Amino acid sequence: MKKRKLIINITAVCLLIISLLLLQRLLMPKYVSAIVEGSLIEEYYQETTGHDVIFVGDCEVYESFSPITLWENYGITSYIRGSAQQLIWQSYYLLEETLQYEKPEVVVFNVLAMKYDKPQKEEYNRLTLDGMRLSPIKIKAIQASMTEKENLIDYIFPILRYHSRWDELTAEDFQYMFKKKKLFHNGYYMRVDVRPVTTVPEGRKLANYRFGDNAYYYLDKMVDLCRDNDIDLVLVKAPSLYPYWYDEWEAQIEEYAAKHDLLYINFLELIDEIGIDFNTDTYDGGLHMNLSGAEKLSVYLGKVLAENYGLKDHRNDDVYKEVWEEKVDFYYDMKAQQYYELEKYGYLKSFGAKPPTS
Amino acid sequence: MLFTSYSFIAFLALLFTVYYLVPRRFQWMLLLFASYLFYFIAGPTYVIYIFVTTLSTYLVSVKLESLNKAQSAYLAEHKDMSREEKKEYKASVKSKQRKWLAACLLFNFGILAVVKYTNFAIANINAVIGAFGGGTQLSFLKLALPLGISFYTFQTMGYIIDVYRGKHPAERNFFKLALFVSFFPQLIQGPISRFSDLAQTLYKEHSFDSRNISFGIQRILWGYFKKVVLADRILVAVNTLIKNPDTYQGAYVLIGMLFYAYQLYADFTGGIDITIGIAQVLGIEVKENFHRPYFSKNIVEYWRRWHITMGTWFRDYLFYPLSVSKPMLNISKHSRRLFGEALGKRIPVYLSTFIVWFATGIWHGASWNFIVWGLMNCVVILISQELKPFYDWFHSRFNVAGKLYFKVFQIVRTVLLMSSIRMFDCYRDVPMTFRMFGTIFTRFSFKPFFDGSLLKLGLDLSDYIVLLAGLIVLTIVSVSQARGSVRRQLEKKPVLVRYAAYYALILSILVLGAYGVGYDSSQFIYNQF
Amino acid sequence: MNTLLRMLKGLHPDVDFETCETLIDDKILDSFDIITLVADINSEFDVTIPAEEIIPENFNSARALYALIERLSNED
């Protein structure tokens, strides 16, 4: 009798835990048709082969560089671990986490995130952190990112955060409960639509142009991490016209790169050389590159990387060939689909694009 | 640390574990430590207040008892004293004890008065100065109001009065008394326990009793359900309604009134469920504070069933002593002589009732709203007392007593009456409350119920569905409580039914609970970076 | 005893106070009744019932109440 009771209780607790886990999966946002950026980080874990180059940073990495182009032109394998408003400590911990899985030759970090010294917004934290697998590194990333009102436990058990979505669940939440469809190209978010630059806002005057100590602390850590792992760190600044990139910031990065003997590429200064045309190469008026812009940048960056760091051409390597052929197919399929939608509706309807407002 | 915070839940989990791991004779000490820790986290300076109250009460209680002992010893030694001498001697001891008691009451109620009512007094003095054209105004004091001071002061003063009355001996162990005063589950919102009740289980050694613990946890969960799923959800609409009195008048006042009745019930009884549940997990019995109050048929009955420990506190320590005090008995004699039997009898009763409700009102909060709230209760009680002959006549004339429909009518009437008095709790000041109440009659319209206005108060359709379902569950549970403990009834049900109920409870708290940041997808929309 | 029963009858004519033992437990006497009684007793018997004696055991039946009055008047 006592034994029977024990069995019932244990079964009950297990069932409860299982139903909670299922419920948690159901309630978490799926980021498949809207706010697709939320899916960027988790797609990495589906990778089966290693990469020569890892990108970390905010939208200026995942909208500006196309790993497929790097592959097609130079046989460089790469992955972008970028996410929306990725803060530098998040970049650092994402890199540290990536190094648990593989050891790249080169790491590319986009320096715009240096402007943030403190945690910013819970919602953006979520877009980056929820996708990470649970690990001690994730915990550290959460602790570095939390704003004052946040709790660690809300990240470890996301059901506590997303429970109130119960009344806005859609078919998508059930459909993608266990497996999501692939949305990105090794972390690159493809957009083929065009919205030319019309105005370029001037940067507001700031009270203080020096990057914060915390930002520097993590940049130092990133430098050390790369050095310890025998990885070359490259700093880049994507050619987005805004958020505004101040000369004072530029000077600090240049100085930092020189001091630590790092390669720093500011694409804002290379717009003409690369041939970026802000009438055709951006999809949101100069904030982000579209496919055309990203491909141009990638051709340039690939050349620099191949020449400077002697990256091997894997195009004839059987291990990579098969994997990458599939990626290339997916790339061109999506490209064709996007052009098809563009032609049919005059704007991108799916792929996380927002319908035109006016 | 709110009951609904993660840290409180972690605190509980840790305490429950350690409590059953330490040697049993240390359990009460652990509770004392936990209670002071809880209080310290709430505000480090608060600890001083509660400690001072404990210490002063302890010293006086010991003094009272030593006076008692001295008296017994003296009487034993002087057996040959005459009756008159004995009486005189006893009276002198009693008078000494009374002085000590008075000092203790004055000191501790004084602390309460200073921290809680000084600014209220200053505001009133300023208003009077202003009314007479005076220019100088007193400035407000910045005093921290220690958490739960009204509750623990009342509980502790009840204790010292009981010692004085000889109801039970004084607790000789200072730390045990300190635990009685600070026992953390009831610190924030009661119940106000009696030493003679609580002490029976508070200091005992408790072994791990899985049934008791399971019952306690069920009670805690039920409390969280009421608080987090229902009270905190409807709170949004209540706030919208009462914070915008210019927009929401007429029917909205009625809606706000009913919503507030729902919220207060779910919040207060839920909190008490958590308190009693925690105590039960610890093996400690805390007296019930509610007895299905919304099934009361009249206001006197309501006050016997709502916030019971506060009502009985005022009854035993204020109403009775006041009513049977010498001055009051004298008033009684004089008024009977002056106004005749019928009216004269009433005067002292009315006077005591008035004072008690004034005190009850101001105990709830330092504002005229609460005073008027208390006095409104008083008025309703006295009127219904006066109407008693009429009621009796009505009941027998129309033969309605005991009929179900009439019971329902009485219950609805009582709930509406209590809810309307409670509006003083909601609006900014007394005149506004009266004005808003008036609009129910002058600007009433059925439109807000049907034109979708209800969906603009901060709750959407799914929230109303949850609230309605919650109301049904609350009603079913309350009705079942008439047949005894719901948990015991559930225990007898088949395993599947039982676990389905537990699952439903846990999952609904987790999923439907109005806690956390709340999901607003627009916040996630990626627009700039 | 008869005086006391008369007093009680005056409050609740319909109750049989000679046999009822649950005046408080069954909520027949409420707090108003009790203090009215205490005042009446004070004027009729010249006995003051102190607040600490207002407990259910002393008011549950007419007999218990009478015993209380006798005890208090003997103490004086």
Offer a quick outline of the entry.
The complex is a heterotrimer of chains A (358), B (529) and C (76). Chain A is an alpha/beta fold.
List keywords for this structure.
heterotrimer; A: 358 residues; alpha/beta; Rossmann fold; 5-stranded parallel β-sheet; 15 helices; 5 strands; C: 76 residues; mainly alpha; Non-ribosomal Peptide Synthetase Peptidyl Carrier Protein, Chain A; 4 helices; 57% helix; globular
What does this structure look like?
The complex is a heterotrimer of chains A (358), B (529) and C (76). Chain A contains 15 helices and five strands. Chain A has helices at 2-27, 40-43, 59-62, 67-74, 88-101, 122-129, 136-145, 152-156, 159-162, 171-175, 213-228, 247-259, 271-274, 291-309, 318-345, and strands at residues 53-57, 78-82, 106-110, 232-237, 263-266. Chain A has a five-stranded parallel β-sheet, sandwiched between helices. In chain A, α5 packs parallel to α11 (213-228). The mean pLDDT of chain A is 92. Chain B folds into two domains: 24-205, no CATH class; 225-512, no CATH class. In chain B, α3 (46-77) packs across α6, α4 (83-131) packs antiparallel against α5 and α9 (251-281) crosses α16. Chain B is built from 21 helices and no strands. By secondary structure, chain C is an all-alpha fold.
* CATH class categorisation of chain C: Mainly Alpha
Number of domains of chain C: 1
SS-based structural class of chain A?
alpha/beta
The N- to C-terminal Cα distance of chain C equals 19 Å
CA radius of gyration of chain C:
11 Å
Largest interface: A-B, 39 and 26 residues
Query: Any idea what the radius of gyration of chain A is?
Result: 22 Å
Strand content of chain A: 5-15%
Within CATH, the superfamily of chain C carries the name ACP-like
Question: How many strands appear in the DSSP assignment of chain C?
Answer: 0
Strand order of the largest sheet of chain A: 2-1-3-4-5
* Tally of helical runs of chain C: 4
Categorize the overall geometry of chain A: globular
Give the H and E element order of chain A.
Answer: HHEHHEHEHHHHHHEHEHHH
Strand content of chain C: under 5%
Weakly predicted, low-confidence segments of chain C: none
- The secondary-structure element order of chain C is HHHH
Number of helices of chain A: 15
- Describe the global form of chain C: globular
Number of strands of chain A: 5
What structural class should be given to the helix and strand makeup of chain C? Answer: mainly alpha
